[in-house]
Amino acid sequence: MQLNGKVAVVTGAGRGLGQAYARALAAAGAAVVVNDLDGELAEQTAEGIRAAGGRAVAEHSAIGSTEAADAIVATAVGEFGRLDVMVTNAGVLRDRSLLKMEDADFDVVVETHLRGTFTCARAAARQFKEQGGNGRLILIGSPAGQRASFGQTGYTASKAGIVGLVRTWAAELERSGSTVNAVIPVALTRMVATIPGMAELVEKADKGEPIPADVRAGGLGTADDVAPLVVFLASDDAAGVTGQAIGVGGDRIAIWSHPTEVAVESRAGGWSADAIAEVFPTAFQPHLQPFKPDTVPGAPEGK
């Protein structure tokens, strides 16, 4: 898979999944703008790419504002002449359950994840249009946005919103040839190290030790297992893939379904509460949807 001549931005690329995406895109031939709030980490990642023979520059904007998004795109155009791929990976966590969630904790998570995805995608889409289209928006979601994730009110709201944006933006940008997709990654990174039972697996991944086969088969691996999907979606081979949420982790890749009606009943003249109660057990109860996440072999239940 070759991305020669393409220019990519990866936000939040100083470590973890973002770093893996940046490295993989560069290894495939793309020039990469490595964004991270931690300037030192961004510089280290960019230097590592250059040392391996790739092209990369570091960029230190805090994701969220329009000004930051415009600065990131301007860096790509100024350094490499164009922009072809925007990977919106930057994020923060402020985990609290609903009753304990403070406004400031909720706001900073939504600002970075959801608003940051919006501002960066908008800035990139404007540049794609100026270049004649055919750009790639790759938005990073999370299983937390697809299923319940206890204690992650702001994070789940943001990640679910991002997948909703994928469908809308795919429809809006289709005529220009630009694609919009979400990657739903599952990986052993520092963000999951605090989950009970996961620290040992994260330590194995950090040391480069093999991940147990049953864990990998269940869809949990390293950041490097996720990166190839990002490279594919950035490529010309993925020109016909848009509006999708694609899960990846360990040995598994999966297409997530779009929300759709699973049970429908009509009643002439409308419904009373009593009428709903009468038909609900047989017409609707069997179709109620699960909300808790699937489990991964070797991982604690619920994550």
From TrEMBL:
<dbReference type="InterPro" id="IPR051687">
    <property type="entry name" value="Peroxisomal_Beta-Oxidation"/>
</dbReference>
<dbReference type="InterPro" id="IPR036291">
    <property type="entry name" value="NAD(P)-bd_dom_sf"/>
</dbReference>
<protein>
    <submittedName>
        <fullName>NAD(P)-dependent dehydrogenase (Short-subunit alcohol dehydrogenase family)</fullName>
    </submittedName>
</protein>
<dbReference type="InterPro" id="IPR002347">
    <property type="entry name" value="SDR_fam"/>
</dbReference>
<dbReference type="Pfam" id="PF13561">
    <property type="entry name" value="adh_short_C2"/>
</dbReference>
<dbReference type="GO" id="GO:0016491">
    <property type="term" value="F:oxidoreductase activity"/>
</dbReference>
<keyword id="KW-0560">Oxidoreductase</keyword>
<dbReference type="InterPro" id="IPR020904">
    <property type="entry name" value="Sc_DH/Rdtase_CS"/>
</dbReference>
<comment type="similarity">
    <text>Belongs to the short-chain dehydrogenases/reductases (SDR) family.</text>
</comment>
